[in-house]
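Homework help board

Subject: predicted structure for assignment chain

Our instructor gave us this sequence and asked us to write out the predicted structure in token form, then describe one feature. I got the tokens but I'm not sure how to describe them. Can anyone check?
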Amino acid sequence: MVGGKNDEPIEINISLEKAFYILVKAREFDAKVAPVESDPGSNPADSGEREILEDYADDATATELREAIDDLNEDEVIDLIALTWLGRGDFTREEWQEGRALARERHRPHSADYLMGIPTLGDFIEEGLAALGHSIEEYESGHL
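My token output:
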């Protein structure tokens, strides 16, 4: 991966707090699976409590992720999209400004739908942040 510990972090328009919150919510969302019709006579302990990972319409995880993305201003959304693309390997650290420009050009009001449709969104955001010199470990140590 491009970018290392010796590289100075590149400034981004989205705060690290918001970026990492969305990263965590995206990982929770990515972990969701389609609900499985369980045996009505089974014990919840027998199912390994898998209901927690099942994706139901009234599940708060998707709502929380969508609201976090929708609450971003335009510059923050553009950087989130560019971070995702950077983490996916579409751009390098040196091409960050080009990635931002393309994200600005392609940004639409339905960015939450677009981003939430990307499998492993949380991983891509983390990789993008790391490529720009921002570490989740630094954030976690101050907030967990």
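Reply (TA_rk): Your tokens look well-formed. For the description, you could write something like this. Confidence is low (pLDDT under 50) at residues 1-5, 52-56. That's the kind of observation they're looking for.
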